[in-house]
Design goal:
With about 160 residues, this protein is mainly α. Among the domains are: about 1-30; about 30-105. It has helices spanning about 5-25, 35-45, 50-100, 105-120, 125-150, and strands at about 30-35, 50. A two-stranded antiparallel sheet has the order 1-2. It is elongated, with a radius of gyration of 36 Å.
Length: about 160
């Protein structure tokens, strides 16, 4: 027999064996799917998952997004309700004060002054952070003076 025929027969047997071997394997575990970093942190999966696990990770991600979207929507709704309540109370108080302010001299001016004084007691966004930074800076200055006898910075 021709040696080329033996070669092709042997090659066909090897290919058939390889295909049979692959048929018995789960190919979905060999294919890897890359997972974005934000998704990794959110649902706690590694940087890549097998194709067999990818659908499970996808469903977990969709559930995570849905749950957090619902939470955010409910927090926004609760905030809107609190805002509307406070706005209603403030408007009602100012309307009642405004109606009665005209009964005595300088009442309109008094409403403006009371509104301004009330604004002094309402914290602005970022005030707490500034206060914490000022306290930390003061503490560091105190430690510097205690250790070296001189202030850390020479601001004038």
């Amino acid at each position: 027999m021709n040696p080329k025929a033996w070669f092709f027969i042997g090659f066909a047997v090897v290919v058939a064996g390889f295909v049979s071997l692959l048929q018995g394997c789960d190919l979905a575990t060999f294919v890897r799917v890359k997972v974005p970093a934000a998704v990794q942190e959110a649902i706690g999966v590694p940087d890549s998952v097998s194709y067999a696990e990818a659908e499970s990770a996808w469903n977990e991600w969709k559930l995570f997004v849905q749950i957090n979207s619902d939470r955010m929507a409910s927090e926004i709704e609760a905030g809107r309700e609190r805002f509307e309540l406070l706005q209603s109370v403030a408007n009602t108080g100012l309307e009642a004060l405004g109606e009665n302010a005209s009964l005595f001299p300088g009442g309109g001016l008094l409403v403006g002054v009371l509104g301004g004084v009330g604004g002094l007691f309402v914290r602005r966004p970022g005030d707490k952070k500034k206060m914490v930074q000022a306290v930390q800076k003061g503490f560091q200055e105190g430690v510097s003076v205690a250790l070296t006898g001189k202030p850390e910075s020479s601001e004038s």
